[in-house]
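Lecture 7 notes: from sequence to structure.

We start with a single chain of 287 residues. Read the sequence below before looking at the structure.
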Amino acid sequence: MSALGPSVPLYIVDAFTDKPFHGYPAAICLLKQEMSDADMQKIAAEMNLSETAYIQGVDGNDCDYKNGDRFSLRWFTPTNEVPLCGHATMASAAVIFFVCDNPSPSVTFQTLSGDLIVQRQGTGITMNFPLNTPQPELVIKKDLIDSVHYSSTTKKLLVRLKDTCTRDDLERIKPDITNFQSVESSGRIRGVIVTVKGDDPQGDKAQKTYDFLSRYFAPWNGIPEDPVTGSAHTVLAGYWSGILGKKTMNARQCSARGGDVTVHIRDDGRVDLTGEATVVLRGSLTI
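Now the structure, written as tokens:
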């Protein structure tokens, strides 16, 4: 039997939820020393979650997770590295704030997409992103559909359902995912958001209401349906703010796992996404 290699702290965190086995899971590794890209990719394949995130000191230096406020962050799918991932960023911040007991009010992650500042909000976590308000594409007024809008910056199509549609109607929709890519193969669309005005007087938590509800499908990226999608809410926030005349809204993504997001449009034209995160596994990985 060969000697065991170095041990890497490993966590699985469900983002955008305060309940285990809801929201969007991500694996988080805290690195104490340099790790090769090949090993990062192997671990991500072994975890087999949509993203595995690696936190370490800036420029690969050793760092103090308990007291530091600036870290390097990278995200890997089971097959490749990606430049940005919202839910794994939230999950990473949850490990820093609530597992490492870091008292900093905010941390900065140095990433392939630039610096991402993530703030602590009580038991929640706030991420700041560009606002991607979609433009009108079609007014259909047919069957369940009210109108269609398009965000060129995110390549997302937003389909609004009629106000007569309920949350149950949204959750019962079963699109032909296998047909999406054959219908649209130009690369113009990389995801479809289906949304409806909130109609749930109680929500999934006592006394909580939702301003809007959504689901998100992205088979072009190998994701039939996403559990909770930060980037989709940068599109939804701009759209529903114009419709409802609100800057702060509570949202629910109605996937099978489900998740809650509070969106707040800032005066600088960006949007804050706030949610909670739940650590469901704490352990270590030996490589």
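The chain has a mean pLDDT of 91. Keep this in mind for problem set 3.
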